[in-house]
Amino acid sequence: MQDITLILLGAGNSTRFNAPVKKQWIYIKDDPLWLFVAKQFEKYNFGDTIIVSSFDEIKYMKYFASYTYIEGGKTRQESLCNALSQVKTQFVLVSDVARCCIDHDMIGRILGAKGISDCIVPAIEIADTLYIDNKPADREKAKLIQTPQLSVTHLLKQALDSKQTFTDDSSAMASIGKNILFVEGSLSAHKLTTKNDLTKLPCLNHASDKTLIGFGLDIHPFEENKQMVLCGVKIDSLFGFKAHSDGDVAIHAIIDALLGAAGMGDIGELYPDTSSEYKNIDSALLLKDTVKKINSFGFKIEHIDITILAQIPKITPYKEKMRASLASLLGIQARHTNIKATTAEKLGFVGRNEGVTVHAVATLSYQNRKELL
Prior knowledge:
By secondary structure, this protein is of the alpha/beta class. Helices cover 26% and strands 28% of the residues. Strands 1, 4, 5, 6, 7, 10, 11 and 12 form an eight-stranded mixed sheet that branches. Strands 16-13-19-17-18 form a five-stranded mixed sheet.
């Protein structure tokens, strides 16, 4: 099937799914949904596979598999047009990542009709009584349209070169008078839209129970006449931390530990100190954003353990307040947020009262779908 390019659309923001995790990042064993779907198509040996996603997800996705990744647009149609600009093959097969339970018999019917019509579309008949505008309608004249849909590439590009908005490829092709061939669809090719759809998709096995562990380390020197903040808590001190942000060395170490467990790089990649956006920023805001990203990518924070290495200031009077602050920021119970403190026995830069270093360990698990329902 080297004359066909597969496009998998997955740049949506999952608003109707209404969960902390984006549906594209629900895990099936050790694979996120988008990869689970892409792997099911590999047996067809297409000329290329294009995954369409949002900009801030593509770098991470590249660590999973070597496909072609394209940034999506604000709408499905914009995303499809972005992908089509990279297609060189005669035919293109377009599907949605959310159409995740692949019926290979249905795929066979679609591919078997290649070249017979301008657009090959799977469709299922309507079994229930049909009303349109509160009036009974002839259900024999109606069909439910599914994906994937196979089109002649240059004709689909032509059809989408319009100010009109289309909900699928076939309606765009029909708008310019191209031939549409319907083949038998599949009831098992149900689209994942809301959380309730999880119960209708038997192909989605539960996520792995694997625990992921990350380590973080950060160091900051002292700076006079600056407010000191540790773990999101203001510390009584004549000096704070020299840094591009507020310098909360503990939160920075925790962010790196979280990113390490998820395999998402480091704090400098997400929040570079060369950007004016993060100048003097409250590090608690960075941690909140990191937690949101971690959750949206399908992970659940289980535990945080940090060690603060400081000759000064004294940490013990603030430990309980720090624990409560971190628990709130991380969205976990205080008992899963541990803080330890020690001195450097007057050795090194810490022992010379020049700064503080923090070590952090984070554990993550995959989001459990039962908790989403």
